[in-house]
Design brief:
The protein is of the alpha+beta class. Helices cover 20% and strands 35% of the residues. The longest helix has 12 residues.
Amino acid sequence: MAYNVNIQRLEISALFDLKGKALAVKKYAGAHLPDFTDKPNTFTEKDGKILAFIGRDHWLLKVDINREEDLLEALSPDKAPAEVSIVQTSDTMTFFEITGPDAHQIMAIACPLDLHSRVFGKESITFSEVFGLRALVQRIEGGFEVGVEQSFGDMVADYLARSKGSQSGSTDKGLAK
């Protein structure tokens, strides 16, 4: 069976791992970040920056790779106080966008989470598994975005293509980068 879905491997994103008490991180870097959310496994977005609350005293900042150097300079991880950790992790993850009417079907194959919109709403993001690998799963407009450790990118691209099903001569551009 072929699913009506578009799967695209995305360009690299700038990623920053932030750890510390919310108040300390806000005090040091808050001027350069979207608003903090109090609800775990959710994200906020502002000016193309996504700030995800992914664990106790743990956030992930994601932004377009073209803004990485400016943000690195603004965040100045080497100048952060001892109670705040900011680590640039841009080259560690590969992201895939899964959109279309059957995106939830592909995710049901790939991921054990209940991703129904009543449970995993429009600002939801969390670490889970995709095809047995640790993955960052985010709800986006029209579907989902999935991030895996970059060394598994080609394997996940293959699994996603196989999950989509076969359509005579059909391939997704950019999937097997």
